[in-house]
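Researcher: Next sequence.
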Amino acid sequence: MRHIFFLAAPLVLAKCSAATSSATPPNIMLVVADDLGFNDVDFQEPSHSVVKTPVLKKLATSGIRLQNHHVQPFCSPTRATLMTGRFVLRYGLQNTVIWPQDAWALPLNETFLSRNLQDAGYYTAFFGKWHLGLYKKEYLPLQRGYDEQYGYYLGGEDYWTHMRNGALDWHSNDTLTINQNGSYSADLIGDVASDFIVRRAGKGPWFMYLPWQSVHSPLEAPDEYLNMYPDLTGSVKTRAAMVTAMDSNMGRVVDALNRTGQLENLVLVFTADNGAPYGDAFSAGDDPAMIEALAFSNNKTRPPGGMHGGGGGSNYPYSGWKHWVFEGGVRSAAFVYSSLLPKSIRGTVHHGLFHSVDWLPTLTGLAGASTTKNLPLDGVDIWPALLQGGTTSPRTEIPVDIAACGTKDQSIVDGPQAAMIVGDMKVIVQCWWRDSKDPSTAQLYNITADAAELHDLSAEEPALLKSVLARLDYWEGQSVDPYPKDQDNCGEGAGQGPSPFSGGLKFWDSWC
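Model: Next structure:
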């Protein structure tokens, strides 16, 4: 049985006061938790969590906790923003995720963060969940700037068998791996990440993208973690155990950094990809009737309430869940840990407005990497704002999401289909797309004074509402149509095989 790891060794912070004081480029780790609620960790201030995350708490409280960090309302889009530094409306990923059967992937003219860093001399690795398209080989990790890959291409796999829709999805260096059945995914990813850190010690700068499977459905956890929560029941208990399993494996990663002296020149960014779901998210498979069966309630104006959703997660104190444009769906649990941060700001909470698109220009700036190959970035370098603390941010607005509603393109955004943040103000509207714009449905909130979005100001502040809608209208004009589901006439994907090299199992791989 694997031992639970709780970071017995202390974090050792170097004496550097700024990124520029480092003689060599920093190692960079970008960590993403899947479907993790804002209140599913115990490092928030104040904390209302029932979950034990001692490793993440130690990192977060030794760094800067980000109280106003935003992402997209579901999986693939947030991952795309992290890799491209560009809003999803630029490439048509505003309505949905990239489904296993879709013959589409993030376009090749989008330069990934991994490519920027690789070109700057970084050795790059991706361990975990891809979810950015697989239908052709050129869209897989090793072709998009990664030197190493381990994990899976889709989303929602079984944690033990690594099967999705009856087919195996577990790969190493973009080659099917068949000998991991029965091993829990957080343990496997913790193994390879820790091994990578040891192997790369003293060999030049590296970048690790570490998107855990945890804690997306299906809800599955090893007994040793379930036993840590005797007072919890049902999905809340299982989900808490899953989060702690991820945290424990993060402890193994941090231990490897400590043992090899690599905490002293590290920038670690942690974020969730979206808020916790109200239900069990996508554990139903991908048959054609699935979206209808899940009964997305696009006509509702507000999300359901409650401390915990049916999937066991919590976004308290915010309203909304995964798939919703309310803050509970798009304000993520996030922090930055680095010895490059001045001691005076370690352990602080930053309230500046940030978005996941901001990490590409921020991390490339720290690495001295060029972004001249990239299409025009929407992200901004937030490192100076982090060093200044408080509410400082170069970011003034976020087009949270603008789904192509009122069209043939199915949206999995739940409830209102568009939202826009400008400064403290946020507008939420049922639909704002092409000829389907109805300002009469608009809700207006001050998300600084009213973070739970309970007091609609639309009737009280008509001029302010008009100005925020004008910015929403601008960004709608920048939006391309949702991506085509069969871009190259490749047909729908499905599990391939079985074949001798797959151990007699069907498997997921490129098909076009």
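Model: Confidence is low (pLDDT under 50) at residues 13-21, 281-297. The two ends are 41 Å apart (CA to CA).
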